[in-house]
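PROTEIN DATA CARD
Card holder: ATP-binding protein
Chain length: 138
Origin: Pseudonocardia alni subsp. carboxydivorans
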Amino acid sequence: MVGSDVQFVTLDRGGRMTRSLSHPYLDLSCLPLLRRWIREHLPAADDLVFRAGVVCTEVVADAVDHVGGGGDVRICPTPGGWLIEVDDSDPEGVLTPGRSRLGSNRGRGLTLISAFSSWGVRRIRDGKTVWAVIDISE
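Structure generated from the sequence above:
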């Protein structure tokens, strides 16, 4: 692990405490920790924990598989949902749901992410951030 977790506690508009996480990753070994954090800190509304776990796993796995890993994962509340962001060091990468340059048995990650969230890509100075918003009311 590079660095360590940074957890934030904030108050939402109703005065309730919410938690956010920022966690560095190098490879897939961070996934059990991220899924545990999601189970422990996201509200058990509908299938939110399941959807957030799938989306977080797929975005991190895509970054590791296609870029080689090394970046940060952030999970934080938004009005009406949760935001998952994963930074990587590939500013040129194009994400195409249903297609993978890694073989015909691959390419389902973005399809799953699309099924459970709205998502996009933001270019940053040294790479890109893939973000996904999971709506609580879905």
